[in-house]
Specification:
The structure is a homodimer of 318-residue chains. The first copy, chain A, is built from 11 helices and 11 strands. By secondary structure, the first copy, chain A, is of the alpha/beta class. In chain A, helix 2 links the parallel strand 2 and strand 3. In chain A, helix 3 crosses helix 5, helix 4 packs parallel to helix 5 and helix 6 crosses helix 7. The longest helix of chain A is centred in the C-terminal third of the chain and has 20 residues. At the A-B interface, helix 8 of A face helix 8 of B.
Chain lengths: 318, 318
């Protein structure tokens, strides 16, 4: 397995990324090899300083870097030799099996959508995120922010993709899927969720348990996969982030709130596309980069794209 | 001033409500008199047991109670002598100046919409809620749940109503109004917020400061009034409730998290209607009922409906 990593992405690149690479090296499986995209000279210098043998990884030298101000859609043409553009071209040629970056989210999404492309039958790819539960487990929130405007069919597919993701990445056999809503009764909702609820009810593609309210999403009692549009998902996720920041800033010592630390979870995969694409947090530290790389390895191993294809072909409601 | 109170509403009615009434009695202004709607015999018995002089309040005897299973829209016809139906008829006749209940939210909304009715020009009334800020102040979230599906014009009006509410109830001279969004940049949003943003930008009806993300709503640094549709508002509010419950359950001692306790804030007013209507939490304790009554007094005093009318007549963007 070949894991592609953008060395130039993130606020603390390339130092934090290369250090994360060196940290991940010892924890990857024997058959996993990292392929780094970025400034070769700088990368080698950081490795030399740490006494790391650069022959343990491949380095693809690139000369351009996508900056935060760059337009995501245009940047692949404007900066064809950027680490992200070269990474995606290599991924599309299947010379690497997955690609991870803590750089421009916009450019990563453009790469996922237009270079790797959605799995046939997927209306819109989405991004899942883990949310800690008070019972010690994790639940999945999907879509956590990719699609601000959704149609009911999209929420239905997020439920399918999320269910497969939870089964493979969280080891839950038949994940309970719930629809995030302003009331638990079937007749509660906005026009979008009411229509989505109608599609999901009696679904044979996943195990639908009904609506879930915002005050129940952290307790693990109702659902393993929580489905919402990306606008709502973004706000839920950011609000949880705020609570973590507040607990941290106010010196609250609590194991549950500590579990909202994004460094524990690596990056956010884009699911529903034909390969493994992982977007790391812009502020990623060395530790976060390491987790992102290990997560990319697990995702590649899980062969999710193949499983999505299979599920869409068998789509009971199609 | 005459403050109407539904004695039969809430999980712990009538005991908790009558006890809340007796507790509020000493804190109300001299000119304020409470008018109770409900079972007179039971009310008098609770007062007698506490040694409270029942002549300090008016009691309107009613014979029916709206239950949680009753259909809100039909219940006014089916139970014309329920405490909520009689309360609203009395309010419409202006024999009381405001009406508060911890009973059926649905019936209270129906009463507000069809008996008291929206202020002329208001597309849809809404419910604001306070959210604690780490700087010790409060911000307003509006709509906190009344309107699951909104149009851009509705969000614009929520901003107007919320701005007036914050000015009068929080004493903020020119409240900073922000639109809850999945990104702070002007071009971020879903179709609804993008259109609303366009209307709000350059508004002369309130002081618009742009978009606010979900991780910024607790810090007081950006906005005093946070506008969203009622679906999103409900989820934000419930999620904050979950965080309070978790902090509480896990024995976290922290002043900020403690401020999410709904008992501190009384009920939720329905704003944009022609009178003062306050909906208390179903679980309301004696303490919560007391705060709800004092809040109703403040709201009546603030004459918000008159101020809304004036603002709508002067609506700069109309």
């Amino acid at each position: 397995m070949r894991i592609g990593i953008d060395v130039m992405g993130g606020d603390h690149a390339p130092e934090a990324v290369v250090q994360g690479v060196m940290l991940a090296y010892g924890e990857l499986a024997k058959g996993s090899r990292m392929v780094l995209f970025g400034d070769k000279e700088k990368t080698l210098a950081i490795m030399a300083q740490a006494g790391f043998d650069a022959a343990q990884v491949d380095i693809v030298h690139t000369t351009q870097t996508i900056e935060m101000g760059d337009h995501p859609a245009k940047t692949f043409q404007q900066k064809p030799d950027s680490s992200i553009a070269v990474g995606f071209r290599t991924l599309a040629k299947k010379e690497i099996d997955g690609f991870a970056s803590a750089g421009s989210t916009g450019a990563m999404l453009v790469g996922a959508m237009y270079t790797v492309k959605p799995v046939e039958g997927v209306v819109r790819p989405c991004i899942p995120t883990f949310i800690p539960q008070t019972n010690g487990k994790l639940a999945l929130l999907v879509d956590a922010g990719l699609n601000a405007d959704c149609k009911p069919e999209m929420l239905y597919q997020f439920a399918m993709l999320g269910s497969i993701y939870a089964k493979n990445m969280l080891g839950i056999d038949a994940p309970r899927v719930a629809l995030l809503c302003n009331g638990e009764e079937d007749e509660k909702g906005n026009m979008l969720t009411l229509a989505a609820h109608g599609l999901m009810k009696n679904s044979r593609d996943f195990s639908f348990v009904g609506n879930i309210e915002g005050n129940k999403i952290y307790f693990g009692t109702i659902a393993d996969v929580i489905v919402c549009d990306g606008f709502v998902g973004n706000i839920v996720l950011k609000q949880a982030e705020a609570m973590y920041m507040i607990a941290h800033a106010q010196g609250v010592k609590n194991e549950f709130f500590d579990r909202f630390n994004y460094e524990l979870y690596g990056g956010t995969p884009v699911i529903g596309v034909n390969s493994t694409v992982v977007i790391g947090h812009g502020h990623s530290s060395t530790q976060a980069i390491k987790v992102m790389i290990l997560q990319t390895e697990s995702l590649i191993k899980a062969q999710l794209a193949e499983k999505f294809k299979l599920a869409l072909n068998n789509n009971a409601n199609a």
